[in-house]
Write a structure and sequence with these properties.
Keywords: Transferase. With 176 residues, this protein is α+β, with helices and mostly antiparallel strands. 28% of the residues lie in helices and 35% in strands. It has a single domain (2-125), classed as Aminopeptidase, CATH 3.40.630.30. Strands 1-2-3-4-5-7-6 form a 7-stranded mixed β-sheet, sandwiched between helices. The mean pLDDT is 91.
Length: 176
Amino acid sequence: MKTLIGNSCYLRALEPEDLDFIYQIENDESLWEVSHTQTPYSKFLIKQYLENSHLDIYEAKQLRLVIVCKETNLQIGLIDLFDFDPKNERVGMGIVISAVENRKLGFGNEAVSLLVNYVFEYLNVHQIYVNISTDNSASIKLFSNFGFEKIGIKKAWNKVGNLRKDEALYQLIKSN
């Protein structure tokens, strides 16, 4: 699918071979704050998830894609659509680049660009939203560069350790 292919990376559907990569991401405690995870995932549960990943977004209300580096053909992250609401033409989006050394190299920027285009052109969505911790400057910059606008703050929304952190809601509305 040409729509999901960029200059430095491409997005593809989940494959059974992604088991170890997803297991690594889901169990990386340094990422739990952004994924709102509190417990580890077993390979058994991830395998079950992969077996059901063929479900259509209209049925599952979510879509998870692997971000693959074109140069190395290695998985470098995941990008998700969630809470898909075709009636109201909206969907949530999230992204993670797993290894620190692959961050700030433009992969996230390109992946978001590819998926925003896909969402607006193929899913006929009117708006995309993201939830970002107010102290996550990298994600705020990433999504703001695409025109996502902060439309509100959820005060003390997430508990991280002994802290309560605010979470911002950003929205991108399709231009006509």
